[in-house]
Design goal:
single chain; 469 residues; Transposase Inhibitor Protein From Tn5, Chain A, domain 1; 2 domains; 9-stranded mixed beta sheet; 3-stranded antiparallel beta sheet
Protein backbone atom coordinates (compact mmCIF):
# COMPACT_ATOMS: atom_id res chain seq x y z
CA UNK A 1 0.00 0.00 0.00
CA UNK A 2 1.35 3.39 -1.02
CA UNK A 3 1.15 5.61 2.07
CA UNK A 4 1.66 8.70 -0.13
CA UNK A 5 -1.18 7.97 -2.53
CA UNK A 6 -3.48 10.50 -0.95
CA UNK A 7 -1.09 13.37 -1.75
CA UNK A 8 -0.41 12.59 -5.43
CA UNK A 9 -1.38 15.53 -7.61
CA UNK A 10 -1.86 17.77 -4.55
CA UNK A 11 -0.39 21.27 -4.44
CA UNK A 12 -1.08 24.46 -2.53
CA UNK A 13 -1.37 28.01 -3.80
CA UNK A 14 -2.81 31.32 -2.73
CA UNK A 15 -5.98 32.19 -4.60
CA UNK A 16 -9.73 31.87 -4.73
CA UNK A 17 -12.31 34.03 -3.06
CA UNK A 18 -15.30 33.74 -0.76
CA UNK A 19 -13.79 30.96 1.37
CA UNK A 20 -13.93 31.56 5.13
CA UNK A 21 -12.62 29.48 7.99
CA UNK A 22 -14.23 29.33 11.45
CA UNK A 23 -17.53 29.96 9.70
CA UNK A 24 -19.49 28.43 12.57
CA UNK A 25 -18.37 31.21 14.90
CA UNK A 26 -20.97 33.32 13.12
CA UNK A 27 -23.54 31.31 15.11
CA UNK A 28 -22.38 32.65 18.47
CA UNK A 29 -22.08 36.15 17.02
CA UNK A 30 -25.62 35.93 15.66
CA UNK A 31 -26.80 34.58 19.01
CA UNK A 32 -25.40 37.62 20.80
CA UNK A 33 -27.06 39.97 18.31
CA UNK A 34 -30.46 38.23 18.08
CA UNK A 35 -30.88 37.84 21.83
CA UNK A 36 -30.13 41.55 22.32
CA UNK A 37 -26.86 41.07 24.19
CA UNK A 38 -24.79 43.16 21.79
CA UNK A 39 -27.22 46.06 21.99
CA UNK A 40 -27.49 45.77 25.77
CA UNK A 41 -23.70 45.88 26.14
CA UNK A 42 -23.54 48.84 23.77
CA UNK A 43 -25.92 50.74 26.04
CA UNK A 44 -24.05 49.68 29.16
CA UNK A 45 -20.69 50.87 27.85
CA UNK A 46 -21.82 54.06 26.12
CA UNK A 47 -20.18 57.25 27.41
CA UNK A 48 -21.54 60.75 26.96
CA UNK A 49 -19.50 62.77 24.50
CA UNK A 50 -17.46 59.76 23.37
CA UNK A 51 -18.24 58.23 19.97
CA UNK A 52 -15.65 55.54 19.21
CA UNK A 53 -15.01 54.14 15.76
CA UNK A 54 -15.91 50.68 17.09
CA UNK A 55 -18.91 50.48 19.41
CA UNK A 56 -17.70 49.11 22.75
CA UNK A 57 -20.60 46.69 23.05
CA UNK A 58 -19.69 45.24 19.66
CA UNK A 59 -16.04 44.98 20.70
CA UNK A 60 -16.79 43.09 23.92
CA UNK A 61 -19.21 40.81 22.06
CA UNK A 62 -16.66 40.06 19.34
CA UNK A 63 -14.02 39.34 21.96
CA UNK A 64 -16.42 36.94 23.70
CA UNK A 65 -17.16 35.27 20.34
CA UNK A 66 -13.42 34.86 19.75
CA UNK A 67 -12.99 33.38 23.24
CA UNK A 68 -15.86 30.96 22.61
CA UNK A 69 -14.03 30.02 19.42
CA UNK A 70 -10.94 29.16 21.47
CA UNK A 71 -9.02 32.46 21.78
CA UNK A 72 -6.67 32.69 24.76
CA UNK A 73 -5.23 36.15 24.09
CA UNK A 74 -6.72 39.52 23.25
CA UNK A 75 -4.89 39.51 19.91
CA UNK A 76 -6.84 36.46 18.76
CA UNK A 77 -9.85 38.67 18.09
CA UNK A 78 -8.13 38.75 14.68
CA UNK A 79 -9.75 35.36 14.05
CA UNK A 80 -12.89 37.37 13.28
CA UNK A 81 -11.15 40.40 11.79
CA UNK A 82 -9.44 38.23 9.15
CA UNK A 83 -12.85 36.91 8.05
CA UNK A 84 -14.14 40.32 6.99
CA UNK A 85 -16.21 38.92 4.13
CA UNK A 86 -18.35 37.15 6.74
CA UNK A 87 -17.99 39.32 9.86
CA UNK A 88 -17.63 42.80 8.41
CA UNK A 89 -15.48 45.38 10.24
CA UNK A 90 -14.03 44.03 13.50
CA UNK A 91 -11.94 45.99 15.99
CA UNK A 92 -8.18 45.45 16.22
CA UNK A 93 -6.54 43.84 19.22
CA UNK A 94 -5.38 47.29 20.37
CA UNK A 95 -8.96 48.53 20.41
CA UNK A 96 -10.08 45.39 22.22
CA UNK A 97 -7.38 45.90 24.85
CA UNK A 98 -8.47 49.52 25.25
CA UNK A 99 -12.13 48.48 25.61
CA UNK A 100 -11.20 46.09 28.44
CA UNK A 101 -9.05 48.74 30.13
CA UNK A 102 -12.03 51.12 30.13
CA UNK A 103 -14.14 48.67 32.18
CA UNK A 104 -14.00 50.01 35.73
CA UNK A 105 -16.20 48.74 38.58
CA UNK A 106 -19.16 50.88 37.45
CA UNK A 107 -18.90 49.60 33.87
CA UNK A 108 -18.68 45.98 35.06
CA UNK A 109 -21.80 46.53 37.14
CA UNK A 110 -23.65 47.85 34.07
CA UNK A 111 -22.41 44.87 32.04
CA UNK A 112 -23.81 42.52 34.69
CA UNK A 113 -27.22 44.25 34.52
CA UNK A 114 -27.17 44.06 30.70
CA UNK A 115 -26.43 40.34 30.89
CA UNK A 116 -29.26 39.81 33.38
CA UNK A 117 -31.75 41.56 31.07
CA UNK A 118 -30.60 39.46 28.14
CA UNK A 119 -30.76 36.28 30.22
CA UNK A 120 -34.43 36.94 31.03
CA UNK A 121 -35.18 36.96 27.31
CA UNK A 122 -33.06 33.86 26.66
CA UNK A 123 -34.80 31.92 29.42
CA UNK A 124 -38.20 32.84 27.98
CA UNK A 125 -37.06 31.52 24.60
CA UNK A 126 -35.65 28.38 26.23
CA UNK A 127 -38.91 27.78 28.11
CA UNK A 128 -40.85 28.12 24.85
CA UNK A 129 -38.57 25.66 23.05
CA UNK A 130 -38.25 23.06 25.81
CA UNK A 131 -41.47 23.58 27.75
CA UNK A 132 -39.52 25.03 30.67
CA UNK A 133 -35.99 25.55 31.92
CA UNK A 134 -34.17 22.18 31.86
CA UNK A 135 -34.33 20.57 35.32
CA UNK A 136 -31.21 19.59 37.19
CA UNK A 137 -30.93 15.79 37.36
CA UNK A 138 -29.90 13.95 40.53
CA UNK A 139 -29.71 10.22 41.21
CA UNK A 140 -31.87 9.29 38.24
CA UNK A 141 -34.49 11.96 39.02
CA UNK A 142 -34.90 15.64 38.24
CA UNK A 143 -35.39 18.49 40.69
CA UNK A 144 -38.31 20.01 38.77
CA UNK A 145 -38.42 23.80 38.88
CA UNK A 146 -35.51 24.16 41.32
CA UNK A 147 -32.71 26.36 39.97
CA UNK A 148 -29.39 24.96 41.21
CA UNK A 149 -26.50 27.41 41.68
CA UNK A 150 -23.11 25.83 42.24
CA UNK A 151 -20.23 27.79 43.80
CA UNK A 152 -16.58 26.84 43.62
CA UNK A 153 -13.14 28.42 43.45
CA UNK A 154 -10.27 27.41 41.19
CA UNK A 155 -6.62 28.16 40.64
CA UNK A 156 -5.42 30.00 37.52
CA UNK A 157 -1.66 29.65 37.16
CA UNK A 158 0.34 32.77 36.27
CA UNK A 159 3.51 32.10 34.28
CA UNK A 160 4.68 35.71 34.56
CA UNK A 161 4.42 38.48 37.12
CA UNK A 162 0.88 39.90 37.10
CA UNK A 163 -1.04 42.17 39.43
CA UNK A 164 -2.60 40.22 42.32
CA UNK A 165 -0.76 37.02 41.37
CA UNK A 166 0.26 35.41 44.63
CA UNK A 167 1.30 32.09 46.05
CA UNK A 168 -1.72 29.78 46.35
CA UNK A 169 -2.64 27.26 49.01
CA UNK A 170 -1.59 24.51 46.60
CA UNK A 171 1.95 25.85 46.39
CA UNK A 172 1.50 27.28 42.89
CA UNK A 173 1.54 30.94 41.80
CA UNK A 174 -1.36 32.80 40.24
CA UNK A 175 -4.95 33.80 40.97
CA UNK A 176 -7.79 32.18 42.88
CA UNK A 177 -11.10 33.23 41.23
CA UNK A 178 -14.48 32.30 42.71
CA UNK A 179 -17.22 31.25 40.29
CA UNK A 180 -20.96 30.51 40.23
CA UNK A 181 -22.69 28.32 37.62
CA UNK A 182 -26.29 27.42 36.84
CA UNK A 183 -26.54 23.63 36.87
CA UNK A 184 -29.79 23.72 34.86
CA UNK A 185 -28.37 25.54 31.85
CA UNK A 186 -24.55 25.37 32.29
CA UNK A 187 -24.39 29.18 32.21
CA UNK A 188 -21.68 31.18 33.95
CA UNK A 189 -23.55 33.40 36.42
CA UNK A 190 -20.67 35.16 38.15
CA UNK A 191 -16.86 35.27 38.26
CA UNK A 192 -14.82 37.10 40.90
CA UNK A 193 -11.12 37.43 40.15
CA UNK A 194 -9.16 37.22 43.41
CA UNK A 195 -5.48 37.19 44.43
CA UNK A 196 -3.81 33.81 44.55
CA UNK A 197 -3.65 33.90 48.35
CA UNK A 198 -7.40 34.57 48.75
CA UNK A 199 -8.95 32.23 51.31
CA UNK A 200 -11.03 29.27 50.17
CA UNK A 201 -13.69 30.05 52.78
CA UNK A 202 -13.69 33.86 52.66
CA UNK A 203 -17.29 34.58 53.63
CA UNK A 204 -17.51 38.06 52.08
CA UNK A 205 -16.44 36.74 48.67
CA UNK A 206 -18.96 33.90 48.79
CA UNK A 207 -21.77 36.28 49.73
CA UNK A 208 -20.83 38.70 46.93
CA UNK A 209 -20.72 35.93 44.31
CA UNK A 210 -23.97 34.42 45.62
CA UNK A 211 -25.76 37.78 45.33
CA UNK A 212 -24.29 38.35 41.86
CA UNK A 213 -25.53 34.92 40.78
CA UNK A 214 -29.03 35.58 42.14
CA UNK A 215 -29.15 38.88 40.25
CA UNK A 216 -28.51 36.95 37.02
CA UNK A 217 -31.45 34.59 37.58
CA UNK A 218 -34.75 35.97 36.20
CA UNK A 219 -37.05 37.01 39.05
CA UNK A 220 -39.78 34.48 38.23
CA UNK A 221 -37.26 31.64 38.64
CA UNK A 222 -35.94 32.72 42.06
CA UNK A 223 -38.85 31.15 43.94
CA UNK A 224 -37.07 27.78 44.24
CA UNK A 225 -33.29 27.82 44.45
CA UNK A 226 -30.63 25.46 45.75
CA UNK A 227 -27.10 26.70 46.50
CA UNK A 228 -24.31 24.15 46.71
CA UNK A 229 -20.62 24.39 47.56
CA UNK A 230 -17.94 22.19 48.99
CA UNK A 231 -16.62 22.29 52.54
CA UNK A 232 -14.28 25.21 51.82
CA UNK A 233 -17.26 27.52 51.32
CA UNK A 234 -19.41 26.19 54.18
CA UNK A 235 -19.21 29.24 56.44
CA UNK A 236 -21.72 30.47 58.99
CA UNK A 237 -22.21 33.61 56.90
CA UNK A 238 -23.13 31.76 53.70
CA UNK A 239 -25.50 29.34 55.45
CA UNK A 240 -27.20 32.16 57.32
CA UNK A 241 -27.39 34.26 54.15
CA UNK A 242 -29.27 31.53 52.30
CA UNK A 243 -31.48 31.00 55.38
CA UNK A 244 -32.42 34.69 55.32
CA UNK A 245 -33.21 34.41 51.60
CA UNK A 246 -35.58 31.55 52.34
CA UNK A 247 -37.36 33.69 54.93
CA UNK A 248 -38.39 36.18 52.23
CA UNK A 249 -41.93 35.95 51.04
CA UNK A 250 -42.20 33.89 47.87
CA UNK A 251 -38.67 32.49 48.18
CA UNK A 252 -37.69 28.89 48.80
CA UNK A 253 -33.91 28.92 49.03
CA UNK A 254 -32.01 25.94 50.39
CA UNK A 255 -28.35 25.08 50.72
CA UNK A 256 -26.33 21.89 50.50
CA UNK A 257 -22.74 22.34 51.63
CA UNK A 258 -19.80 20.26 52.72
CA UNK A 259 -19.26 20.17 56.49
CA UNK A 260 -16.16 19.46 58.57
CA UNK A 261 -15.69 15.97 59.96
CA UNK A 262 -14.69 17.52 63.27
CA UNK A 263 -14.71 16.63 66.95
CA UNK A 264 -18.46 17.18 67.26
CA UNK A 265 -19.12 14.54 64.62
CA UNK A 266 -16.54 12.13 65.99
CA UNK A 267 -18.01 12.41 69.51
CA UNK A 268 -21.54 11.38 68.54
CA UNK A 269 -20.73 8.93 65.75
CA UNK A 270 -20.13 5.94 68.09
CA UNK A 271 -23.67 6.44 69.47
CA UNK A 272 -25.24 6.04 66.05
CA UNK A 273 -26.83 2.57 65.87
CA UNK A 274 -25.86 0.35 62.97
CA UNK A 275 -29.51 0.19 61.92
CA UNK A 276 -29.43 3.93 61.16
CA UNK A 277 -27.14 3.35 58.19
CA UNK A 278 -28.76 2.81 54.80
CA UNK A 279 -27.09 2.09 51.42
CA UNK A 280 -26.06 5.19 49.51
CA UNK A 281 -27.32 5.64 45.97
CA UNK A 282 -25.30 6.32 42.85
CA UNK A 283 -25.85 8.68 39.92
CA UNK A 284 -28.49 6.35 38.44
CA UNK A 285 -30.45 6.15 41.69
CA UNK A 286 -29.39 2.56 42.39
CA UNK A 287 -28.21 1.44 45.88
CA UNK A 288 -24.50 1.17 46.59
CA UNK A 289 -23.96 -1.43 49.33
CA UNK A 290 -20.27 -0.48 49.66
CA UNK A 291 -21.27 3.02 50.87
CA UNK A 292 -23.83 3.95 53.53
CA UNK A 293 -25.46 7.18 54.68
CA UNK A 294 -27.19 8.32 57.88
CA UNK A 295 -28.44 11.48 59.58
CA UNK A 296 -26.75 12.88 62.69
CA UNK A 297 -28.94 15.92 63.34
CA UNK A 298 -30.76 14.45 66.35
CA UNK A 299 -27.60 13.26 68.06
CA UNK A 300 -25.86 16.58 67.51
CA UNK A 301 -28.80 18.62 68.76
CA UNK A 302 -30.19 16.62 71.63
CA UNK A 303 -27.73 14.00 72.93
CA UNK A 304 -25.69 14.32 76.12
CA UNK A 305 -23.36 17.29 75.99
CA UNK A 306 -25.92 19.81 74.79
CA UNK A 307 -26.58 21.31 71.39
CA UNK A 308 -23.40 20.90 69.38
CA UNK A 309 -24.85 22.97 66.52
CA UNK A 310 -25.62 26.05 68.59
CA UNK A 311 -25.10 29.15 66.46
CA UNK A 312 -26.09 27.41 63.25
CA UNK A 313 -29.63 27.84 61.83
CA UNK A 314 -32.16 25.61 63.62
CA UNK A 315 -33.31 23.97 60.38
CA UNK A 316 -29.82 22.73 59.44
CA UNK A 317 -29.53 18.97 58.96
CA UNK A 318 -26.30 16.98 59.11
CA UNK A 319 -25.87 13.93 56.87
CA UNK A 320 -22.90 11.58 56.93
CA UNK A 321 -21.56 9.08 54.42
CA UNK A 322 -19.12 6.24 55.07
CA UNK A 323 -17.37 4.06 52.52
CA UNK A 324 -14.27 1.99 52.07
CA UNK A 325 -11.34 4.30 51.33
CA UNK A 326 -9.95 4.22 47.82
CA UNK A 327 -6.20 3.61 47.36
CA UNK A 328 -4.20 6.71 48.20
CA UNK A 329 -6.97 8.43 50.16
CA UNK A 330 -5.73 10.73 52.94
CA UNK A 331 -7.44 9.63 56.14
CA UNK A 332 -7.57 11.13 59.62
CA UNK A 333 -6.45 9.05 62.61
CA UNK A 334 -10.11 8.39 63.43
CA UNK A 335 -10.79 7.14 59.91
CA UNK A 336 -7.67 4.99 59.92
CA UNK A 337 -8.83 3.38 63.16
CA UNK A 338 -12.35 2.80 61.78
CA UNK A 339 -11.14 1.67 58.38
CA UNK A 340 -13.74 3.92 56.73
CA UNK A 341 -13.74 7.26 54.95
CA UNK A 342 -16.36 9.73 56.17
CA UNK A 343 -17.89 12.74 54.40
CA UNK A 344 -20.35 15.15 56.02
CA UNK A 345 -23.01 17.30 54.36
CA UNK A 346 -25.15 20.10 55.81
CA UNK A 347 -28.47 21.02 54.20
CA UNK A 348 -31.57 23.03 54.99
CA UNK A 349 -33.91 20.96 52.82
CA UNK A 350 -36.73 19.67 55.03
CA UNK A 351 -38.02 16.14 54.58
CA UNK A 352 -36.79 13.92 51.81
CA UNK A 353 -34.84 10.71 52.05
CA UNK A 354 -31.36 10.97 53.50
CA UNK A 355 -30.07 8.84 50.61
CA UNK A 356 -31.44 11.22 47.99
CA UNK A 357 -30.26 14.39 49.76
CA UNK A 358 -26.74 13.01 50.12
CA UNK A 359 -26.68 11.91 46.47
CA UNK A 360 -27.98 15.33 45.49
CA UNK A 361 -25.00 16.98 47.14
CA UNK A 362 -22.52 14.68 45.43
CA UNK A 363 -23.54 16.18 42.08
CA UNK A 364 -21.61 19.25 43.26
CA UNK A 365 -18.78 17.53 41.39
CA UNK A 366 -20.39 18.79 38.19
CA UNK A 367 -19.06 22.23 38.96
CA UNK A 368 -15.58 20.84 38.30
CA UNK A 369 -16.72 20.06 34.75
CA UNK A 370 -18.10 23.55 34.35
CA UNK A 371 -14.85 25.09 35.59
CA UNK A 372 -12.83 22.83 33.31
CA UNK A 373 -14.93 23.96 30.34
CA UNK A 374 -14.67 27.56 31.55
CA UNK A 375 -10.90 27.30 31.66
CA UNK A 376 -10.93 26.10 28.05
CA UNK A 377 -13.10 29.13 27.27
CA UNK A 378 -10.91 31.97 28.44
CA UNK A 379 -10.87 31.54 32.21
CA UNK A 380 -7.75 29.39 32.24
CA UNK A 381 -5.39 32.15 31.09
CA UNK A 382 -5.28 35.84 31.98
CA UNK A 383 -3.68 37.67 29.02
CA UNK A 384 -2.67 40.92 30.73
CA UNK A 385 -0.43 42.03 33.58
CA UNK A 386 -3.12 44.56 34.53
CA UNK A 387 -5.63 43.33 37.10
CA UNK A 388 -8.24 45.71 35.67
CA UNK A 389 -7.87 44.26 32.18
CA UNK A 390 -7.80 40.69 33.53
CA UNK A 391 -11.01 41.31 35.50
CA UNK A 392 -12.74 42.57 32.36
CA UNK A 393 -11.34 39.61 30.40
CA UNK A 394 -12.96 37.25 32.94
CA UNK A 395 -16.31 38.91 32.26
CA UNK A 396 -15.80 38.49 28.51
CA UNK A 397 -14.91 34.84 29.08
CA UNK A 398 -18.03 34.43 31.23
CA UNK A 399 -20.09 35.87 28.37
CA UNK A 400 -18.38 33.40 26.00
CA UNK A 401 -19.46 30.51 28.26
CA UNK A 402 -23.01 31.86 28.12
CA UNK A 403 -22.97 32.12 24.32
CA UNK A 404 -21.99 28.46 24.04
CA UNK A 405 -24.66 27.51 26.58
CA UNK A 406 -27.30 29.50 24.67
CA UNK A 407 -26.19 27.92 21.39
CA UNK A 408 -26.82 24.47 22.88
CA UNK A 409 -30.04 25.58 24.55
CA UNK A 410 -31.69 27.40 21.65
CA UNK A 411 -30.21 26.09 18.41
CA UNK A 412 -28.77 22.58 18.72
CA UNK A 413 -30.23 19.10 19.19
CA UNK A 414 -29.11 15.64 20.26
CA UNK A 415 -25.49 15.12 21.21
CA UNK A 416 -24.57 18.64 20.14
CA UNK A 417 -26.99 20.06 22.72
CA UNK A 418 -24.83 18.38 25.39
CA UNK A 419 -21.43 18.85 23.79
CA UNK A 420 -18.51 20.48 25.56
CA UNK A 421 -16.65 23.47 24.06
CA UNK A 422 -13.89 21.38 22.46
CA UNK A 423 -16.45 19.26 20.61
CA UNK A 424 -18.48 22.28 19.54
CA UNK A 425 -15.38 23.94 18.14
CA UNK A 426 -14.38 20.92 16.10
CA UNK A 427 -17.84 20.09 14.78
CA UNK A 428 -19.46 23.53 14.49
CA UNK A 429 -17.40 26.66 15.15
CA UNK A 430 -14.24 25.83 13.19
CA UNK A 431 -16.06 24.58 10.09
CA UNK A 432 -14.99 26.18 6.83
CA UNK A 433 -17.52 27.60 4.39
CA UNK A 434 -17.86 29.61 1.23
CA UNK A 435 -19.62 32.93 0.76
CA UNK A 436 -21.73 33.06 -2.41
CA UNK A 437 -23.43 36.29 -3.44
CA UNK A 438 -26.57 36.58 -5.51
CA UNK A 439 -29.92 38.39 -5.58
CA UNK A 440 -28.53 41.01 -3.20
CA UNK A 441 -27.94 38.35 -0.58
CA UNK A 442 -25.01 36.40 0.81
CA UNK A 443 -25.17 32.65 1.23
CA UNK A 444 -22.81 30.76 3.51
CA UNK A 445 -22.23 27.37 1.88
CA UNK A 446 -21.18 24.55 4.23
CA UNK A 447 -19.50 21.52 2.56
CA UNK A 448 -22.19 18.81 2.25
CA UNK A 449 -19.64 16.10 3.12
CA UNK A 450 -19.14 17.60 6.60
CA UNK A 451 -21.12 15.32 8.98
CA UNK A 452 -22.61 18.24 10.91
CA UNK A 453 -23.41 20.49 7.92
CA UNK A 454 -27.19 20.16 8.36
CA UNK A 455 -26.91 20.82 12.10
CA UNK A 456 -25.05 24.06 11.32
CA UNK A 457 -27.58 25.27 8.76
CA UNK A 458 -30.47 24.32 11.08
CA UNK A 459 -28.83 26.32 13.88
CA UNK A 460 -28.51 29.36 11.59
CA UNK A 461 -32.20 29.09 10.72
CA UNK A 462 -33.26 28.83 14.36
CA UNK A 463 -31.13 31.76 15.51
CA UNK A 464 -32.29 34.00 12.68
CA UNK A 465 -35.88 33.17 13.63
CA UNK A 466 -35.47 34.24 17.28
CA UNK A 467 -37.76 37.13 18.18
CA UNK A 468 -36.06 40.30 19.41
CA UNK A 469 -36.22 41.13 23.13
Amino acid sequence: MDSMAWSKGLSAEVGGHGVVSHAGSALTRLMADRTGLTGALAGALARRGFVPLHDRGRVITDLAVAIADGATTIGEIDTLRHQGELSGPVASDTTAWRALAECDAAALSRIARARARTRRHVWRLAAERHGGIPPARVAGKDLGQVIVVRLDATIVIAHSDKQQARGTYKGSYGHHPLTAWCDNTDESLAVMLRPGNAGSNTAADHLAVTDAAIAQIPAEYRRKMLFTCDGAGATHALVQHVTRLSARRGYQAHYSVGFDFDERIRDVLPRLPETAWTPAIDADGKPRPDAQVAELTGLLRHSAGGDRLAGWPPDMRILIRRENPHPGAQLSLFEQNEGKRYQVTATSTPGGQVQFLEARHRTQARVEDRIRCGKSTGLGHLPSRSCKVSTAWCQAASIACDLLAWLRLLALDGDLARAEPKTLRYRILHTAGRIVKGQRRRYLKIPPAWPWAHAITAAFTRILALPPP
